[in-house]
Amino acid sequence: MTSEDDQKKFDAMIEGESQKSKGLQFCPECGSTRLYYFLGLYAGHNYVCKDCGYQGPVIIEDGQISKELRKKKIKEIKEKNNR
Fold it and tell me: How far apart, in whole angstroms, are the C-alpha atoms of residue 8 and residue 81?
């Protein structure tokens, strides 16, 4: 097997992974579900949050954690607005 064959198999594997459904995904900064996929394949996964502007490869797939983050973020915003 040549390195070109290996590269083709690797490319096919990455393409297959990028097509898989990820389920619900949440922003690690604010808990929002309003994420969009920014980069992929060779550059790796990168997401952007439409609510807080977070950019990065880390997302949360646990709804309970996201609820806690959302409450914390809302509290921070309210405190900031009351100053």
Answer: 53
